[in-house]
Amino acid sequence: MLGIEGNDPIHSIISLKHEVEHNGSIYNIGCDPFYVHYWLPIQEHIIQSKQYNKWKTICVDATGSLVLPIIRTKNKIQSAHIFLYQIITVVDGKTIPISQQLSEKQDMLTIYYWMANWMNTGVTLPDECVSDYSKALLGAITRIFCNRRSLQDYINTCFIYLTGDENQLPECYVRIDVAHMVHIVCRWKCLSLRKPVKDFYVRTIGLLIKLNNIDDFKKTLEIIIVIACSETDGDNVNKLSTPSENARKHLINYISHGDIKMTSEEFNDNSYR
């Protein structure tokens, strides 16, 4: 159909690379392990166009359910799962892909190599990059978009900024997709037995994700820890609310109204003893 003879997918892609129709679209091809980097000239134009000259936000994600493994050798040895990696952005309210990679390896160096080749075409640094919770993907993102910082260095830099010790932020804001974070919490086995408990903690983690003030984050996290580490809640034998009960009520109020009205005296109240 494409004018290619034979059934070797790797050599077929090499042939496509040198066809006039696909000139300037397929960049790097690897055999073992398999990978291919590709993006169209129009995709390069989109990321550099005048319509996309303000706050640049990109999203990077991967899926392993689209490409069949490659059969190698006469013994029909299969390759590992081949993942499709894609960088997307939003222009005029439309989601548009701007770079792709097919890769048999999912380590940080492989992802970094793809992104580095894409950036080498003259693409400007994004202001924000959204990703899932893959450590390899996050490590590649911080190294390519944040002046070769490791993921740990990036986290330390952001924490120092939040605590007020320095006022310099990394070059790119790296953010984990909220849906991926919530999905991770939903899979915690310790929350699988009781749905109301699971629902409560999923909402509290969602609350932490949305907070944009370090003091509110610390206060909320402390309340969650008090609740999680307490064996009981409610009132004690003297009909006084336990610290975990006070914390739970204030946290539910925060989830409902977005405001924690809890003084340090209330939080540290020991009158129940």
UniProtKB/TrEMBL annotation:
Entry protein name: MULE transposase domain-containing protein
